[in-house]
Amino acid sequence: MNQIKRPTLILDKDKCQSNISKMVDKANRMGVDFRPHFKTHQSHVIGRWFRDYGTSKITVSSLSMAGYFIGDGWQDVTIAFPFNLREIDLLGELSGKAEINQTILSLYVAEELDKKLRNDIFTWVEIDTGAGRTGLRWNDFDKLDELLEFLKKSVKLNFQGFMVHAGHTYRARLKEEVVFIFDDSMEKLATLKQRYQSLFPGLKISWGDTPSCSILDSLPGVDEIRPGNFVFFDIMQSIIGSCNESDIAVALACPVVALHPERNTVIVYGGGVHLSKDSMILQDGTEIFGKIALPKGDKWESSLKNAYVSSLSQEHGILKIGSEELNRIKDGDLVYILPVHSCMTADLMQSYCLPDGSCIDHMSAKLLKSWH
Amino acid sequence: MNQIKRPTLILDKDKCQSNISKMVDKANRMGVDFRPHFKTHQSHVIGRWFRDYGTSKITVSSLSMAGYFIGDGWQDVTIAFPFNLREIDLLGELSGKAEINQTILSLYVAEELDKKLRNDIFTWVEIDTGAGRTGLRWNDFDKLDELLEFLKKSVKLNFQGFMVHAGHTYRARLKEEVVFIFDDSMEKLATLKQRYQSLFPGLKISWGDTPSCSILDSLPGVDEIRPGNFVFFDIMQSIIGSCNESDIAVALACPVVALHPERNTVIVYGGGVHLSKDSMILQDGTEIFGKIALPKGDKWESSLKNAYVSSLSQEHGILKIGSEELNRIKDGDLVYILPVHSCMTADLMQSYCLPDGSCIDHMSAKLLKSWH
Questions:
Q1: Nearest CA to B78 among B112, B38, B114, B41?
Q2: Between β-strands B250-260 and B8-11, what pairing exists: parallel, antiparallel or unpaired?
Q3: Which residue in chain A is spatially nearest to B279 when comparing CA positions?
Q4: pLDDT of residue A91
Q5: Per-residue pLDDT tens over the stretch A138-177
Q6: Which residues are bridge partners to B101 per DSSP?
Q7: To the nearest whole angstrom, how far is the Cα of B130 from the nearest Cα of chain A?
């Protein structure tokens, strides 16, 4: 740790592998297929840890990411992102190398794919059950009928079922809210399943999101789960209730560059370009950009009770810390920031360091950042 | 533009060079030294455009960035960031290659530098006149006396003056507020100048921030300015009043991947990992993550009146667009997002494309993102 000179994302491999193994076990116990979302880690090495636990199907959020993982031997990949017509050549190329599952949201895109693709792919229709981001509304039967009838006729676009990302669980703070969202979504999906079962007898339900996959004990009606964030977890998930803070597997090690005890402030080298500007509003109205932990051996302690990241500039992190804890910190020390949203922090940092000093790949490694 | 497949940061070179030339002219007219902050663009090529307009001194926000620009021939560099004791070897190396100006905030750091550096450097003391981020409080005379007396005795740490980043101008929405912040800060700095002028007869005032350098007609008492964002500007600056929206020189070109006219929503490929999660709250309470413009030739039109980026996921951008404008957009089209905070967007995108298809370097190029 003494060799860390600049903001560095530290990965606790034990915690990460434990998070993976627990979710694998849970999927087995619930009898659902496990297709974890790899957009959180974007790493070949971490992907292989999943493989060691028996995972063979994955989810990604872009065709570029699909290519990255197909390049490491993954043979069954779902792209859980509306198809981008400008990448039809890349989809063609990838579908020649692996089994591709692509979400489809519109007849126009389906027609274009059917016309222009040479290989067959599997397709899923994304349904919005209330999150309000992407997906066809579960009761937009005009559009659904039209699209599913087209998919029925298409030889290339093998329809598999409905895909849901119930992103509104991220706003939940009680288990009961997550239960409500799940039950409500599954009722809507049951209507759909009934409507289209004669057309597609084997149609499946693929279910996303870390909160429901972590918090709920069973997921009746679901055939496949696609959680992603659980591989690292983060402060947001600990506040939602998906994990304990001690399950969080990544922390940004930041050098302390200024102390302002008169205003309970510590400035670290580590800002928005490292951590991302994701924040959460606590129940008392405080906006936090991360929690703070002090070093312990080559990892980190429990987070400081009386402390949080209060704002971020491009390279500055502004930490508010109670006087007693602040007295334990001096210029040149390292502090650890537990991120609000680990997917974004990992994407920005683009590599992981293990406490032993070795590094792990991230798809978008900022190679030039290590110019010296 | 038809070749754009994925989110791409487009740079309008004419606007960028015009922004540079106007700020150079203004600094000349005001009789202040011009030391632009290069953290916004982080690009050798754009740096050379400044050089073409006569710029010879620059500001950066990290030692890594100093090294990047020294590597392109810059010989006079200010690191406007509290010194990070873990990088003392790198500072030693860089100070052998160029004139380094380093901000210092504490006696402890000054003592360490004085003890361990072999080369001389210039030093500046950062003063907080009200922004509340970094810097010694302007009236913390105990600490200031102690630090400045030490710097007076030090042979290596040649004290130059006081550096201010009046970041609270970013919260201003009226010219009068910026005038107030400037006048208030300069009164505080005048007190300091008077107090320490006998110790340091030639001490200078270095002044940062794009809003005041853009909005104010003169900066009496200031010796040097360090604006950065003006090279591109962004939606935040247009709302503050530093620029017109037509001065904004960068926009993120994003493929349209889904249309939801029933809820006035368009989904683009382009999310938090491309644009950053910086947002602004408009006067009516709406939180926006960017404004939206449609293509015009190989650039973009004025922003759509009835439209904004309402939220961002990792790769999804969720746009709210009035029905009339939405009818002009279809799957596979490109739309342009004018960023709320161009520094962060550029850092995430890590390269610039000109409308002719050529690309410009960014210090932290995501080389692996173009794996295929």
A1: B38
A2: antiparallel
A3: A277
A4: 97
A5: 999 999 999 999 999 999 999 999 999 988 888 888 899 9
A6: B78, B122
A7: 13
Alpha-carbon distance of B162 to B139, in angstroms, equals: 13
The C-alpha of B29 sits at a distance from chain A's nearest C-alpha, in angstroms, of 30
Residue A58 and residue A79 in contact, taking contact as beta carbons nearer than 8 Å: no
Q: Flag if B277 and A344 touch (Cβ within 8 Å).
A: yes
How does the average pLDDT of chain B come out, rounded?
94
3-state SS class at A340:
coil
- Inter-chain touch B315–A62, beta carbons under 8 Å: yes
Write down the pLDDT at residue A357: 83
Q: Which of A4, A273, A367 sits opposite B347 (nearest CB)?
A: A273
Question: pLDDT tens digits for A82-133?
Answer: 999 999 999 999 999 999 999 999 999 999 999 999 999 999 999 999 888 8
Check CB contact under 8 Å for A263 and B82.
no
CB B340 within 8 A of CB B290: yes
Cβ pair B58, B70 in contact under 8 A: no
Report the distance separating Cα B213 and Cα B30, nearest Å: 10
By CA distance, what is A94's nearest residue in B?
Answer: B372
The two structure tokens encoding residue A69 = 């993982």
Centroid of chain to Cα B104? 20
Question: Does position A370 have pLDDT exceeding 80, yes or no?
Answer: no
The single-letter DSSP state of residue A365 is -
- Residue A347: helix, strand or coil by DSSP? helix
Chain A residues with CB inside 8 Å of B147's CB? none
Residue B168 has pLDDT above 90, yes or no: no
Rounded Cα gap, residues B225 and B213, in angstroms? 7
- For the ranges A37-46, A102-111, B212-221, B359-368, the lowest mean pLDDT is seen at B359-368
Q: Of A74, A156, A73, nearest to A110 (Cα)? A: A156
Q: Please compute Rg for chain A using Cα positions.
A: 22
Q: What is the ipTM of this complex?
A: 0.92
Residue-wise DSSP of B137-199: ETT-HHHHHHHHHHHHH-SSEEEEEEEE--GGGGG--SHHHHHHHHHHHHHHHHHHHHHHTTT
